[in-house]
Design goal:
67% helix
Amino acid sequence: MTDHFQSTVAPQRTHAEPCKRRRRTANKIIAPMSQAALLQSAVEVRQTLRDSLVQVNTLIREVKAQRRQDRLLQTTMDSLRKLSLA
């Protein structure tokens, strides 16, 4: 029983031996897209990027406004603390 176990164990690799990996490839045949379909796809991607840019710019604007409001609140609180200590 132990002889069988020893024969099924894979030999250990040394660090000098390169690791051989197999790449799996899909055996799918993809139909080529027409130029019109490629152009339409590019236009859709461009529009998606533009929409994303608008959203990012809106978020940046809102974060900056929030920071300004936080700084204003902090300076107001500091002024009130100084007045109450005086």
